[in-house]
Amino acid sequence: MAKSVALPFVKPMFATIQNSGAAEFAMIGHPTAFNSFLNKATNIACTRKFIKGFTTPEISIPNVYISNHTFLGRYYVGFRFTYDYCMDIIKSMLDSGMYIYYGGVDDFYLPGKSWYGTRHMHHDGVICGYDDNDGTISIAAHDINWVYNLIRMPQECFMRGLKSSLEDKFYGLMTGYMIEEEVQVELQEDVILKNLNEYMDSNFKKYPIDATGEVRGIVVHDYLAMYIDKLKDGSIPYEKMDWRALRPIWEHKKCMLERIKAVEKKNGWDTDLSERYASVVEKADRIRIMYAMYHKNHNDKLLDKIRNGLLDLGKSDKELVGIFIKKLENLTI
Fold first, then answer.
1. Residue 41 lies in a domain
2. Are 115 and 191 in contact (CB under 8 A)?
3. Are 171 and 25 in contact (CB under 8 A)?
4. Average pLDDT, the chain
5. pTM of the model
6. 47 pairs with which residues across the strands?
């Protein structure tokens, strides 16, 4: 029987873009590695370009990427001069237990991927395995329904997509990564406190509407409400809306809930705060689903509910994260 490797896959918490979910795969089954997200992934960000005509708020969650977790060993290989050996390199990395995040392979030729057969896109994904018995490769990425899934496809299709990108002079890169050594990632309440204070130190005075650059922190909820206003008045056309814009908000709240639960458990607190914060996660999920319904049905009546929901969500988040901060401060006294 020919060789095959299948590294573990679970749907990641941070799944808005392929890169945001990549780091989690290497942490599957590790008892403490996810604490790195709980310590660091406390903030949320967007840009202000949509105010002057850009069609997306470019929302993101900082510190969720491979490079943000120093205990992940990383090995880089460029595609430009390795095409003839690329599949052998991929298999060698997988044989050693590495996941492979890649960028720069044309989705048009990759069956099951989001842009397969519809659009040439020098896209990314995470290679999790291969099987030489049927000549396939397994890639974690958004599928044709834009769900983050594990997709099996012929190895020759991957190589055709790579060739297309190289012919277009798009020279991508693959990153092999894994937890190489024994590592214990402690839950650090002092780091969490510092980062949450930065998240809360956020308002229109610090991030004025007429300025440029990235916006971070709780005021992002208000900026997203402004984005919804622009959809409502038509200055951002429905056809060009960023239909994934509200998913990171939900992911941010899910991570915050896990953070609160972890600190409660470690310090023997009661679970009152996490039980209350669960309602914030539910609100974020409802708003995300309404936004998806708007994208599907173009029902303008939903926009006011989404906008007001975002503002209410920000208020609830401010109240409960504020309580969490006070409890954390008591730990450090």
1. no
2. no
3. no
4. 96
5. 0.95
6. 214
